[in-house]
């Protein structure tokens, strides 16, 4: 269920949908709470806090500012905002009255997703080359929410996942890391090296010496930058290679284990099941 409203007052002219997701969507999906567009009619401030919600805003025209978790950010046309509404925030339009598109949404796993966004370097306010894509996504969300489609909640979920995927893509800027820290820049080279040499055995001491990074710093900063440990990254590459061999060759499990840099077939099978949830043999039967 949803309620669409067009409101024109002294402060804002807004077209919004207050959305009530189904119990299924509320319990199982990332779901919509509210979405719409707004045109400020006069300077004003809106304040919120302690909401079980995440908010994405696209400034489509004008200017203003956001105060979030005690920090102030200047906003202008083309800026994007992505925040956790449990924390206190307020936004104020300047005399250059702004226009906004926005969406409030929530899900039981959103705290983990937002933590990943922050871990990858995502900021509450950022510039993007994808503003047209964001705007189109928000327009599509509004259209779906306004429709009577019986699959509305699933289609909203699909769009919200696309929005979050784009936000996670925008949150990572290796070129900025390169300017800020030569050591972090070396990690890009390290990852590219592992992409080519993942079948070989690598020790932290060897990688530390090759890329001139302290091994303890290397362990910590690799996970911070890429969201995965070095060993887990190598394992994921090897398992991907194993899946290709299982699907497209007749090689035995032992031969595949050897080809993937894990000569112990039992260890390979245990690792494969831990990553994929099924044994190599069960995976092969699927195809």
Low-confidence stretches: 3-8, 175-180
Radius of gyration: 24 Å
Largest sheet: spatial strand order: 1-2-3-10-5-8-11
Residues in β-strands, percent:
15-25%
Task: Describe the protein.
This protein has 12 helices and 11 strands. The strands form 2 sheets. A 7-stranded antiparallel beta sheet has the order 1-2-3-10-5-8-11, covered by helices on one side. The chain has a 4-stranded antiparallel beta sheet with strand order 4-9-6-7, with no helix packed on it. Helix 9 packs across helix 12.
What topology does this entry show?
Blueprint lengths: L1 E7 L3 E8 L3 H6 L2 E10 L4 E4 L5 E8 L1 E6 L2 E6 L2 E6 L4 E5 L5 E8 L3 H10 L5 E3 L3 H16 L5 H20 L2 H7 L1 H16 L6 H8 L3 H12 L3 H19 L4 H7 L5 H12 L3 H7 L1
Antiparallel strand pairs: 1-2, 2-3, 3-10, 4-9, 5-8, 5-10, 6-7, 6-9, 8-11
Helix pairs in contact: 2-4, 3-4, 5-6, 9-12
